Each structure stands twice: as structure tokens, then as C-alpha cells.
Amino acid sequence: MKARFATAALALLVVASGCSAGSRATVANDESSLSVGFTAEPQNFDFTRTDGAAIPQALLYNVYEGLVKLDANGRIVPLLAESWSVSPDRKTYDFQLRRGAKFANGAPFTAEDVKFSINRVKTDWTVSLKSSMDVVERVDVVDPAHARVVLSKPSNGWLFAMTSRIGAMFSPTAVADLANTAVGTGPYVVAQRRRGDVIVLRANPAYWGREPAYRTVYLKYIKDPTALNNALLSNGIDVIAAITAPDSIPQFEADTRFNVFQGTTNSEVTLAFNNARAPLNDVRVRRALTYAIDRKALLATAWAGRGTLIGSMVPPTDPWFTDLSGAYPHDPDKARALLAEAGKPDLSLRLRIPNLPYAVSAAQVVASQLADVGVTVTIEPLDFPAVWLKQVFTDHDYDLSIIQHVEARDITTFAKPKYYWGYDNPRVRDLVNRADGGTPEEQVEAMRAVAQTLSDDAAADWLFLFPNVIAAKKKVTGFVPNQVSESFDLTGLGKS
Q: Distance (Å, rounded) from C-alpha 88 to C-alpha 221?
């Protein structure tokens, strides 16, 4: 059986949405400016109410800062907190704040803003990540430069979560229109936006820290990967933040004008199963689909073999990584036998994907390989982020999907039955809770057990770990090989 395509064209399209500020932005090519090309454009500027990675990719660490951040090696380091201490019972965190830090609107950053920002996650945020703040019992303002956070129980994950978007600090006077206005303490301010084209960041003159190497940064959004590549080749941009067409990498490697940086990410490209919907609520069906897919062949086709096979929701940069990539070797005969045992020898499933290059390429391989075991797949590309987030992520209206999960340590989402996986396993919830409250050694042991349980249950099929491949003009320096946070962090970039 052949896979059927629900749309005539698999358009590689990213929704161009949000707000427009000012007149058309012109990309300048001078030593004080930098132009970076991306494919996925932010839907708006409000990552407190809009899921997806595009907004924090642009704004986190660059415009908004938190008390802490992740460095290039994935370690938690100070940012708006100069230092912190943890009580012996691991429930009280005392943060000593940087004096002199200000928001871009001129308001001083104080412990009152820490209290406001953390409490607001619990009361006003709607995105799925907000649950990481549930463990906070209260925030005390000891003095303007000293904030104390008291947890209801010990949590290994809370401080790590504070390096993500949920740790962003906000001014109480600047949250009325977060979708259109971004006011942070970071090295840049949003100067202009043209929807479907560019976001312009300019150096914040009141920034407390080191002045950025580039005073103006143009974040250019180019939905077509060929056009994105051509923009770099023709001097229209200086950097491709993440190459989306792997076949184009050799041309940049062979061109003496550019450097190509390749590392890893914590972004698992996952074939999601709707565990809450028949027939995917049958573990035999999920295992059959997993056996039917040749992940090595898929990686070779979808990403020229440059990613990493992982077999779990744990990248090698996490301390509890175990290589489970061999748990389900490609075995079409076993897949057919499991489908027959489940009474589903002739399935029809909808594969609803974001219309991004990696997902489109992977979907065609998945559909072809599932057809070989008697499963008819209808591929439905959806505009990303808006439509995919609404229909698949929020409404859970799908059988299968393929998505790149970029949030760090997001294996814990399988402990949330209402998450779009639809996966409900009390053992996994217990293990995740035990890991969060235990010693570091107990955390590693419990999280390895979580990964093994998810593999045994075929809760999803982890196709590959997305590589981090950046192409840039040689004048741009300071890139790190591994993408470990949600942010495309501009603060470390320099000039040769």
C-alpha cells in the first residue's frame, strides 16, 4: 500500500504571524551588525502563553534574562543572581542579586521582581512548562538585592528549569502586552519587527553587563531552506542558525568564506504516538510500528546521517543517558506479527506533522516503511507553529506526529497524562517524583528506569537526536558546538 498525502503540496512553510513595528527593516552589512537566518518565526513575543521554541530561541538570554542560565557545557551559572546558596534540607534557595541591573524601560531589577516573576508563572502562564514552578511554596523579599525561594519539597529539577523560559524575569510595569512588547534586562532590546521577515535587536544602552560585540542583530526568517542557504551564499545574511537542508552542508564546508560548526543538541526528533487513542493505546501496536521503522535508514534520508540514534527521550548530554537505540531493531516480520496479534493487520493512521523540512522528510520515510507492514499512512502537513500547536499539541487531534522536542530534560513530560502523548503510567510518575526529590545518585538511577520503562512501553519512537549545524561567515566567532538551551544565545558571539 502506498502512503496517501492529504495535501497536494508539502509546503515547507512557517506561519508568519505576530506584530509589525515601524517601517521595513533594512539589513545592514557593517562591522557593528549581524544578520542571522532562521526558519521558524515566533508567532508573537509572549512565551508565557505560547508554546514552542521560536520565541525563547530569539528572546531568552538576549532580551529576557533569568537568575541563572546554562553555559556552553550545560552547567548552571549565575546571571541576574550573582550567587546563591541552598539550605541543608534542599528546600530554601537564597539568591544574591546583581546590583545596578535594570529593565529596558528604566525600572531597577530587585527582589520584588523575582517574587513577581515566579508567582506570575503560577498564576498567569498557560504553557505546559509552567508546572515546573508548582514546587515553589513562596518567595520572600529579604531585601532589594536578596530573594529567598522556598520549595514545598526538595527538587533536583527546579533550579535547572529556572535556566529556561520559566525563569525569565519581568517588570510588573511591562507585562500588559507581552505578545507585542518584550521588556527585559538583557543585552538587547527589540527595536523593530516585520512579520514574515525580520526582528531587529539593538544593544541595550543600560545593560548591566558586557556590551555585545554586535550592536544591531537582524533575526531574518526565511521559510524555504534553499532560499535560506542562498541568503548566506549571496551575502544576505551572516549566519544560518541551524541548517535545515543537510545536503547543502558540503557546499559551505568547501567554501573558504564560511565555517561550519557541528555538534549535538538535546532535541529529540520523535515519532509521537497518541497513547490515549485506539489503536495506539495498545502496546502491541506501538511496538509493531517501532519495529517497522528503520531509524538508521530514516536518518540517512532525512538528515544525511548526521544526527545521533538514541532510542529514548534522553540525549547523551544528560547524566542519566543510556544508549537504548538498539531496543527495537528494524524487523518488519515482527511488526506484522504484533499487528496480527493485536487484531490490526490493516491499519489506517493520520500522521499530522509540522510543515518543516526535517518533519516532511522523515514523514515520507515513516509512511513508506509502515506501508511495508500493512499500515496506510495519511500525511497531513500543518502550519507551524500555530496550527500544529493548536490541533496536535493542545487538542490532541492526531494518531501520529513527528516533532523536534527542544526543551531540555523533557522526558518528564511522560509523567503528565494530560500532555499530548496521552501516556498514563503510574510507575513513570512515581519514578519522576522520586528522581526529583532524591539525591543526585538516586535521580540518575530513577531517570534511567524512566527511560527504560518508556522504551519497554514503546511510548513513542525516538527517531534521532537533531544535530546542531551552523554555517557562518568566518568573521563571526564565538559559536559553541552543542545547543543545550532554548536560546540562540548571541551574548558569546564575537568578531575576528
A: 48
